[in-house]
Amino acid sequence: MKQFEFSRSMKAAGIWVGGGLVGIVVLAAALFNLLKYFDAQQDIAAWVQAIGSVAAVLVAAWVASNQSAMALQLRRDMDSEALKKIVAIAKYAGKVSENLQIYVSLGDSERPHLERFFTSLQDCVFLLRSVDYMQIPIAEAALGWIELRHALQDEVAWLEKWLASPEFQGNEDDEPLGEANIRAARAVVRVLNSASGLMPELLATEEP
User: Are residues 67 and 82 located together in one domain of the fold?
Assistant: First the structure.
């Protein structure tokens, strides 16, 4: 069974809390001895209340600061996870688009193969639509995401025409597909470049 490990922030919090408690105890002891020396034990209750008030304020300030730091880290983790999914989907969609263009340019246009590309592109468009624009933490990546979706939709439309009418072929008819493929490739690059600032480790370990 995996052993539970405290995070760095939790360890730091424990150190601060422990140190604060020790400091309060030491301060209280020193104050007690000081009041005893001046024969002012009757004021000890007021001093204890004052120390408690100061300690409460300090603890409240620390808790608020720690909660803000935890919320910020949580947001960063969520943004990182969202970017990982976006980059993975964009790479996959770009590879499907690229392979389709290569396949068509070679003149091999067997219907079963193009039907598989058609299904794959539809899946990609569905994935692209499933992610809300507002969920993408980087504006530039969001724009690339939209461009990629539109480019793939044009490729789907081209394949749909081809599958409905096998006579829909020829160099001139292939031009819209080539243009859509170029747009898709540029959109993928736009997504990857914009995400590289927040997640260079992922882009460095995966081929685009």
Answer: no
Q: List pLDDT tens digits, range 148-192.
A: 999 999 999 988 888 887 665 554 467 788 899 999 999 999 998
Q: Please give the Cα distance from 195 to 203 (Å, whole number).
A: 8
Q: Kindly report, residue by residue over 26-72, the tens digit of the pLDDT.
A: 666 666 666 665 655 556 666 667 767 777 777 777 777 777 777 77
Domain count, the chain: 2
CATH of the domain at 143: 1.20.120
Distance, in Å, from the CA atom of 145 to the CA atom of 90, rounded to the nearest integer, reads 8
The pTM assigned to this predicted structure is 0.62
* Cβ-proximal residues to 41 (8 Å cutoff; 6+ apart), any chain: 35
172 phi/psi in degrees, rounded to 5? -65, -40
Exposure of 27 by Cβ count < 10 A (0-12 exposed, 13-18 middle, 19+ buried)? middle
CA distance 20 to 26: 10
